[in-house]
Write a structure and sequence with these properties.
With 260 residues, this protein is an all-alpha fold. It is built from 9 helices and 2 strands. The radius of gyration is 27 Å and the shape is rod-shaped.
C-alpha cells in the first residue's frame, strides 16, 4: 500500500516554493481530504450560513454606532447574500474540496464581518472572533497538510478590514489580530496532526489486515476466526476440508460444544 501521502511534507518557503504550494493547494484532489464524502453536505451548510447571516445584516441596519456606514454593510451583505445563495444551490461535483473550502472561508469571513460591524463594538466585533476557531476546525479536519499558512491571510484580512474602513487604532487592533491568528494556526495544526495520526493508524491497520488475510487463506494449518465469546465466525479452507464448515461455524469453542 502506498503511504507516501501520509508522510510529513517538507515546506519550501521561498517565493517559488510558496507559489508552487498554492497551486498544488488549489488543484488538490478530493483524495487528499480526510473526509471527502462530506464535502457537498458541509459546502451547502456553509452556503446556508452565509446566506442567513448576510440576510440578517441587511434586514437590521446598524444602531447607535458612529462612523459606521450603512452603505458598506449593505453592500457587503448583499454580495454575500448572492454568493451564499449560489453556494447553496451548487452541486459541487466539479469542485475539489480545497477549492470549496477556500472560497467558503472567504465569504463566511466577510459575512461574519458584516454582522459584526452591524451589531458589535467598532473596536472589535465579537462575531469576527468566531471565524478563527470555526475555520480552524474545518481546516484541521479536512486539510491536515500545509493549510494553515495558506489560509492565515483570510483571517488577517478579515480582522484588519475595520482598521482600513473605520480608521481604528492599528496597534490595539494588531494585538487582537495576532491572538486570533495564533489561535487559528494552533487549532489547525493540532487537529491536522490528530487527523494525520488517525490516517497513519488506519493505513497500518489495513496493511496488517491484508497480511492476516493472506496468512488465513494460504496457511497449511487449521485456522479459525472467533469472536470474543468464542463462537467460530470463519475458518480457512484447510479447516473446512478436515472438519467441515457446517459443523464448525457458529459453534462456541469456549463452552466445549465441539467434540471430536
Amino acid at each position: 500500500m502506498d503511504t507516501s501521502a501520509l508522510r510529513k511534507p517538507r515546506h519550501n518557503l521561498s517565493p517559488r516554493g510558496l507559489a508552487h504550494s498554492l497551486g498544488a493547494y488549489i488543484r488538490g484532489s478530493e483524495s487528499d481530504s480526510a473526509v471527502p464524502t462530506t464535502a457537498r453536505f458541509w459546502g451547502r451548510l456553509c452556503g446556508l450560513i452565509v446566506f442567513t447571516v448576510s440576510l440578517f445584516s441587511l434586514t437590521f441596519p446598524p444602531k447607535n454606532l458612529e462612523g459606521v456606514k450603512l452603505n458598506d454593510i449593505s453592500l457587503i451583505g448583499l454580495v454575500n447574500l448572492v454568493i451564499g445563495f449560489i453556494f447553496l444551490r451548487m452541486s459541487w461535483r466539479s469542485w475539489t474540496i480545497r477549492q470549496q473550502f477556500y472560497l467558503i472561508s472567504v465569504f463566511i469571513g466577510a459575512g461574519l464581518a458584516a454582522i459584526g460591524y452591524a451589531y458589535g463594538p467598532v473596536y472589535g466585533p465579537t462575531q469576527m472572533l468566531v471565524l478563527a476557531p470555526v475555520t480552524g476546525v474545518w481546516v484541521g479536519v479536512t486539510q491536515p497538510r500545509f493549510t494553515s499558512l495558506l489560509v492565515t491571510p483570510i483571517i488577517v484580512i478579515d480582522e484588519m478590514v475595520p482598521v482600513y474602513f473605520y480608521h481604528l487604532d492599528l496597534v490595539h487592533y494588531a494585538v487582537t489580530t495576532g491572538v486570533v491568528v495564533v489561535a487559528f494556526i494552533a487549532i489547525c495544526e493540532l487537529l491536522g496532526r490528530f487527523v494525520l495520526i488517525l490516517r497513519r493508524a488506519e493505513a497500518e491497520a489495513l496493511e496488517k489486515s491484508e497480511a492476516i488475510q493472506v496468512l488465513f487463506d494460504t496457511s497449511p494449518d487449521v485456522i479459525s476466526l472467533l469472536d470474543r465469546s468464542g463462537t467460530v465466525l470463519k475458518i480457512n479452507d484447510v479447516a473446512a476440508h478436515i472438519i467441515g464448515s457446517q459443523e464448525t461455524l457458529g459453534v462456541n469453542l469456549l463452552e466445549g460444544a465441539l467434540v471430536h
